[in-house]
Amino acid sequence: MSLSDQAEIVDGELVEDRELELYAERPGWPLVNEHTVLMPGEEIPTSDDPRTTYTERDLYVSEETAQAIKEAEEEGSPQRRTAMGLFEAWCAEQGRVAKPCTTATYTEYGRHLMARKLKVTTIRHYMSLIRTSMPPGKKPDNSLFLMLLAQYRKKNKRALRRKEAFPITLPYLVPMMEKAEADDRPIGWRDSAMLAFGYRFLGRSVEDVDLDLEDLTILEDMVTVWLAEDKTHKGEEQTLYLHDREDLRLVFRMRRWVNYLAEQGITTGPVFREVKRNGTVASSETRAKTATKRGDYLRPQTVNERVKLWFAKAGLKTDGRPVSSHSLRAGGATDLGMNGATDEELEEAGRWKKGSRIPRERYVRPTKSAAADPFKKVPRHNPEAQARN
């Protein structure tokens, strides 16, 4: 007996005789429940189930709500869009359905990432983003994927290695800002402000570029920032007080850039924006052909590119760790930890979860370990001195 035959018998045992009669009497009833959402123009799905009593009034959302849902789905996070974009491209090549995907497709893609020898953390992160991008109630079973990932973890020790960003501490940051300002151009003003702010704000690059002018107040000795939420404080607003320093000159650099925006009539919207070669600030309205989904907001990748650029322009070298936009966050945390900041102060400054070990283990401890040399306690080998004695 085939699996389909077995399924038919089971179904037959669950359906009462009277229900079978109703199926014949009332074909084509809507296949909906109280959670069904239909976009304008969509047909009501039907089945032979007579128990549905909803009307179109119960099922459709308005044009405004449909547009809001579409915008929310398209916006998402940059990482989610990247993960889904790669997954959809792979599914197209394989002739598979990407959304909603089957458990088999999900598992196969996970194995595909493992075949590329990616890090375990990268694979787990991408697969989690893909799974949570599926429609409600249609997420694939991830148990087989997790079993394969556990095996991959055991057999590929190098895939566990984490490449931490090189910390851009003040001795590196100051030359970068000065180099950006050397030509005294608006793009340099923007970048030096972005570097100073990124270091002092201890934020993730997406938080930097999502900052609005309305959320910023520049005082004489500090910059205050209002955050509706962040990665570890969902739905929890905060007001941050970024005190200035003589070597950072955060107030001067931020005020110079914000004043330049105001001269061009920009007093609302994103703080950090694209600057054209002639020095004017680009607008999504005037560059419709090249505008991205982020509009006037810079991409987080832009911060990454500018950090790398000014690090290289300043003639700086690393210890082998890569330079990225995250280096600003790592640098601020490292400077704090190496100069006596408590765990609580580190957590609060970088808005990590209470009790998080990340700031100490990822930024402070590696720097201290690199500087520590227990062999300095061993006397230098000097045969001539020994012979004289």
Q: Indicate the radius of gyration in whole angstroms.
A: 28 Å
- CATH overall fold name of the largest domain: hpI Integrase, Chain A
For this structure, what is the CATH class of the largest domain? Mainly Alpha
CATH architectural arrangement of the largest domain:
Orthogonal Bundle
* CATH evolutionary superfamily of the largest domain: Intergrase catalytic core
Q: Which stretches of 5+ consecutive residues score pLDDT under 50?
A: 1-27
What's the structural domain tally? 3
Molecular structure report:
By secondary structure, this protein is mostly helical. The chain has 3 domains: 3-63, no CATH class; 76-160, no CATH class; 170-211 and 245-370, Orthogonal Bundle (hpI Integrase, Chain A). Helices cover 50% and strands 5% of the residues. The protein has helices at 3-14, 17-25, 56-59, 63-75, 78-94, 103-115, 120-132, 143-155, 170-181, 186-201, 205-209, 250-263, 300-313, 326-338, 343-350, 358-371, 383-388, and strands at residues 29-30, 46-47, 216-218, 222-227, 238-243. The strands form 2 sheets. Strands 3-4-5 form a 3-stranded antiparallel β-sheet, with helices on one face. The chain has a two-stranded antiparallel sheet with strand order 1-2. A hairpin with a 3-residue loop joins strand 3 and strand 4. Helix 10 crosses helix 12. The radius of gyration is 28 Å and the shape is globular.
In short:
The protein is mainly α and 389 residues long. Helix content is 50%, strand content 5%.
Keyword list:
389 residues; mainly alpha; hpI Integrase, Chain A; 17 helices
Q: Helices, strands, pairings?
A:
Blueprint: H1 3-14, H2 17-25, E1 29-30, E2 46-47, H3 56-59, H4 63-75, H5 78-94, H6 103-115, H7 120-132, H8 143-155, H9 170-181, H10 186-201, H11 205-209, E3 216-218, E4 222-227, E5 238-243, H12 250-263, H13 300-313, H14 326-338, H15 343-350, H16 358-371, H17 383-388
Antiparallel strand pairs: 1-2, 3-4, 4-5
